[in-house]
């Protein structure tokens, strides 16, 4: 009897523990605590918003809000998540440009920039420099649309940072290589091995930025997609034309129905009907001409804007390509030093052969 009571008492404990466990793990119905991961994926993050006037403000925004505001899919925001490591990427979307260049991760729209907040020096410098440039250009004619100004600064700071890192690496490694060539030691070999790993990592990052810029320059469609201001103005023009059509149609309908119903067989006077139809035809004709002119001018300016963006990208492609060339030269210098060391080792081995048994 006593054993039965102990058994019953023990059976209550797991049930209670399982109930507490279920409450902890949420609605997944699993013994694995995924609730923390789910909360992390949908929690708010700190963003820096910079508008067209250069005003910067720190905001706490969740993923869903950013997706709705910028019309972006969830996979694009994963590129900006600091918890994941993605190579440098520039994506043109319907209402935004997604930029992931080294430490600069941001979403650029036609009116504002949402910059992933961070204490990294590149992020602070991007926010400060963008605000200063926009405020300084308030009263000056715009040579570039807002989104291109923001994209240009991201490319500029990224290329400058990569070039500075390449020069610093070359400054550090060349004296070690020269010392190793004259005096082979374990310490110098270890230092060269470490520098060689850093060189490989930096080369891959520079190569990815170069390939991303080249990919954009080779695709006119991708470059056209990135012209957000033109697309926004075009959509506003279409909306204005639609409202004009509705107003003209309602006005014409009122004009055609103004005749007094004297009898059931009484119809609209021919003069009123003719005038109403003439107004409708004139309105639709003018709207059609306006739409055609807008379409032609948009396509013409679109080609010009693609050329403008292509020139902008080409300028930074040259910079990053030169950085990659410098890193390749440094890699060849390391290889030449290794060949020299191997020759010296073989010569010393031949000079002092091991005694035969």
UniProtKB/TrEMBL annotation:
The keyword Transport applies. Keywords: Coiled coil, Ion transport, Magnesium, Transport. One of its GO terms (cellular component) is membrane. It is a multi-pass membrane protein. Residues 192-219 form a coiled coil. InterPro entries: MRS2-like (IPR039204). GO terms for molecular function: magnesium ion transmembrane transporter activity. The keyword Ion transport applies. It is found in: Membrane. PANTHER family: MAGNESIUM TRANSPORTER MRS2-5 (PTHR13890:SF39), RNA SPLICING PROTEIN MRS2, MITOCHONDRIAL (PTHR13890). Magnesium transporter that may mediate the influx of magnesium. Belongs to the CorA metal ion transporter (MIT) (TC 1.A.35.5) family. This is Magnesium transporter.
């Amino acid at each position: 009897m006593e054993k039965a009571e102990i058994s019953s008492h023990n059976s209550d404990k797991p049930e209670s523990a399982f109930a507490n466990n279920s409450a902890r793990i949420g609605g997944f119905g699993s013994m694995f605590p995924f609730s923390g991961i789910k909360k992390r994926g949908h929690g708010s993050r700190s963003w820096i918003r910079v508008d067209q006037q250069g005003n910067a403000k720190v905001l706490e925004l969740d993923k869903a809000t950013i997706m709705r505001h910028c019309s972006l899919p969830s996979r694009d925001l994963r590129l900006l998540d600091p918890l994941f490591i993605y190579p440098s990427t520039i994506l043109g979307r319907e209402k935004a440009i997604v930029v992931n260049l080294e430490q600069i991760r941001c979403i650029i729209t036609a009116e504002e920039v949402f910059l992933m907040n961070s204490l990294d020096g590149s992020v602070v410098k991007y926010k400060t420099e963008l605000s200063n440039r926009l405020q300084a250009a308030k009263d000056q004619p715009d040579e570039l649309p807002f989104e291109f100004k923001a994209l240009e600064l991201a490319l500029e700071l990224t290329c400058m940072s990569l070039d500075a890192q390449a020069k610093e690496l070359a400054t550090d490694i060349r004296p070690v290589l020269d010392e190793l060539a004259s005096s082979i030691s374990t310490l110098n070999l270890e230092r060269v091995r470490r520098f060689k790993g850093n060189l490989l990592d930096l080369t891959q990052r520079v190569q990815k930025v170069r390939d991303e810029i080249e990919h954009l320059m080779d695709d006119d469609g991708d470059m056209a997609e990135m012209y957000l201001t033109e697309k926004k103005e075009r959509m506003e023009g279409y909306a204005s034309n639609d409202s004009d059509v509705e107003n003209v149609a309602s006005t014409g309908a009122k004009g055609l129905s103004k005749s007094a119903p004297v009898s059931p067989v009484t119809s609209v006077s021919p003069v009123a009907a003719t005038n109403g139809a003439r107004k409708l035809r004139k309105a639709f004709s003018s709207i059609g001409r306006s739409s055609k002119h807008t379409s032609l001018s948009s396509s013409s300016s679109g080609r010009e804007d693609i050329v403008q963006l292509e020139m902008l990208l080409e300028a930074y492609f040259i910079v990053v390509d030169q950085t990659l060339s410098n890193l390749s030269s440094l890699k060849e210098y390391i290889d030449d030093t290794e060949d020299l060391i191997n020759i010296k080792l073989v010569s010393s081995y031949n000079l002092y052969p091991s005694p035969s048994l």
